[in-house]
């Protein structure tokens, strides 16, 4: 039971509980309007905090290890999206068009920061390189992910907002708060570090708020009549297969390129992750309210699966003898 609890991410379980709450008690009318305004402010706050927390030293540290970063970025922003497109003939009939678009969106997201570093540390990989890759991926994702989404889904007129409108929203709601956080970092970084024990709840509360608002609107639009149970089960299977393909491809690509074991561990954990923390608020900006719930389901499920699988892998690497590093 204890090992089961360690595999089940409490935050993902909280989000699933929020989805259940929104399914039973969705926000409606003036309450829903209030939640939408609150959500917009929460997203701006979230990216302000991302900007304030991201140290420029972390970007500089290990930056000379460009081959490692190139393969991580290539997997995150090239291999994942191309794999999503290539699997369309098989995946789309299994999960339906709506969830397939959500899978494509997930494939365009940047890597996680905290869990990639945590798993690399546990597995005794190259921690400075993991910090650099994960932090840079998060930063670059603010620019690259929306462009990838526009490219991947732009042909579907009802899935994304008009391109110029989407770019304007990204600049106002994501990029400007992030830049403001970077500017304010010199004054508030120390305070944020001292208060990190409760500030993480602000981060997570913002995401919970976005998820509740998104799924409330989706439920009001008939989400669960549009997504049958068999499609949800197929989605879980697709996420498992997608993660397995990526893990195997990354591991052997890094091995063929001559990376040592520590670097291969870093590449494995940094290159196979997709960020729920970035994906949820960014989806709120990029997609219409009617499609938002369906778009978020794949990343929520994939996030839990990747945590469970990578926790097992990290523990296996950690058990190797020290002299084999």
Automatic annotation (TrEMBL):
One of its GO terms (cellular component) is plasma membrane. InterPro entries: Na+/solute_symporter_sf, Put_Na-Bile_cotransptr. Keywords: Membrane, Transmembrane, Transmembrane helix. Coiled coil: none annotated. This is Bile acid:sodium symporter. It comes from Lampropedia aestuarii. Gene3D superfamilies: 1.20.1530.20. The chain crosses the membrane at residues 39-56, 68-87, 99-119, 131-154, 166-184, 232-254.
């Amino acid at each position: 039971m204890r090992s089961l609890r360690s595999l089940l991410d409490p935050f993902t379980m909280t989000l699933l509980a929020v989805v259940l709450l929104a399914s039973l008690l969705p926000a409606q009318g003036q309450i829903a309007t209030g939640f939408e305004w609150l959500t917009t402010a929460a997203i701006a706050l979230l990216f302000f905090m991302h900007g304030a927390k991201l140290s420029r030293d972390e970007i500089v540290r290990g930056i000379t290890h460009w081959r490692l970063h190139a393969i991580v970025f290539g997997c995150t922003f090239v291999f994942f999206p191309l794999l999503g497109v290539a699997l369309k003939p098989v995946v789309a009939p299994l999960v339906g068009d709506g969830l397939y678009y959500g899978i494509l969106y997930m494939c365009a997201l940047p890597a996680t920061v905290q869990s990639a570093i945590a798993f690399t540390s546990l597995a005794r990989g190259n921690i400075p390189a993991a910090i650099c890759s994960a932090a840079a991926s998060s930063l670059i994702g603010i620019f690259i992910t929306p462009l990838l989404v526009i490219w991947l889904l732009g042909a579907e007129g009802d899935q994304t907002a008009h391109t110029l409108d989407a770019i304007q929203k990204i600049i106002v709601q994501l990029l400007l708060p992030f830049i403001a956080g970077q500017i304010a970092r010199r004054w508030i970084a120390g305070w944020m570090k001292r208060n990190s024990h409760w500030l993480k709840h602000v981060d997570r509360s913002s995401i919970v708020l976005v998820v509740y608002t998104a799924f409330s609107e989706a439920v009001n639009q008939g989400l669960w009549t549009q997504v049958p149970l068999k499609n949800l089960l197929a989605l879980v299977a697709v996420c498992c297969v997608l993660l397995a393909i990526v893990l195997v491809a990354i591991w052997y690509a890094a091995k063929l390129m001559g990376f040592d074991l520590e670097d291969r561990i870093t590449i494995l954990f940094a290159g196979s992750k997709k960020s729920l923390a970035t994906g949820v608020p960014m989806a709120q900006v990029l997609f219409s309210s009617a499609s938002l719930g369906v778009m978020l389901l794949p990343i929520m499920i994939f996030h839990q699966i990747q945590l469970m699988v990578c926790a097992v892998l990290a523990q296996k690497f950690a058990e190797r003898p020290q002299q084999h590093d």
